[in-house]
Design brief:
OB fold (Dihydrolipoamide Acetyltransferase, E2P), alpha+beta, 2 domains, elongated
């Protein structure tokens, strides 16, 4: 069956000599894998640049419930980024968010509210000019709502009472902040706050969550 859907590219792996398999978070079908033949050649139907992490696409796909890997009939950009794929700090944030989504969105179950939240967040990241060093932390706080364990208060973190006042103050402010909020902090406080949030996600999901891109983020924003 041929269907239309919006999608957010999470990653891709090389397949054979000229093809890739891309994991795409779709609005209509949840997390899906698609085989794209010949994309790593100049004569391919699609350009591999379309499959950069967190690219926003409009897709026409062949949907087969009996197959774990689908195929793409047509695609075009839903939104072309101006900065997300060009500014090094934003590239690092995109890599982190794509890794978060890969680890936490594991089912082929559509959730349009969750999808719209992620899409709108990425567009906002693309448009912000400065003061976005806390973006990925605020994203995690907001994303928790769509995973069923919303972070509402500093007391939600089990070991927060053992942290210093700067970390507690920063997290308290982050929890009620919007992406546009300008919250000043040091890199050490920011990194510690992120570690606390990741531990919270581990506890709630019972997954051994470790983000490789977290190390890159720490280096970029130091």
């Amino acid at each position: 069956m041929v269907s239309k859907t919006n999608g957010i590219v999470l990653n891709y792996i090389k397949y054979k000599e000229t093809s890739i398999i891309s994991k795409i978070y779709t609005k209509e079908f949840g997390l899906k894998s698609y085989l794209i033949n010949g994309v790593r050649t100049k004569k391919g139907k699609f350009n591999i640049s379309s499959f950069q992490p967190l690219s926003l696409l409009e897709l026409v796909v062949y949907e087969n419930k009996n197959s774990q890997i689908g195929r793409i009939k047509e695609l075009k950009f839903d939104k072309i980024y101006f900065t997300n794929h060009h500014v090094q700090k934003k590239i690092s944030i995109c890599l982190f968010i794509s890794e978060v989504l890969l680890k936490l969105i594991t089912f082929q179950v559509p959730d349009k509210n969750q999808f719209n939240f992620v899409r709108n967040s990425l567009i906002e990241l693309d448009e912000v000019v400065d003061n976005y060093e806390n973006f990925h932390i605020i994203f995690l706080i907001k994303f928790s709502k769509y995973l069923g364990f919303e972070i509402n208060n500093i007391s939600d973190f089990s070991n927060i009472k053992f942290e210093n006042e700067l970390v507690i103050s920063f997290l308290s402010e982050i929890i009620i902040s919007e992406y546009s909020s300008n919250i000043k902090s040091t890199s050490s406080v920011r990194n510690k706050a992120l570690e606390i949030i990741i531990v919270y996600f581990r506890e709630k999901t019972e997954l051994n969550i470790n983000f490789n891109s977290n190390r890159i983020l720490k280096n970029i924003f130091n």
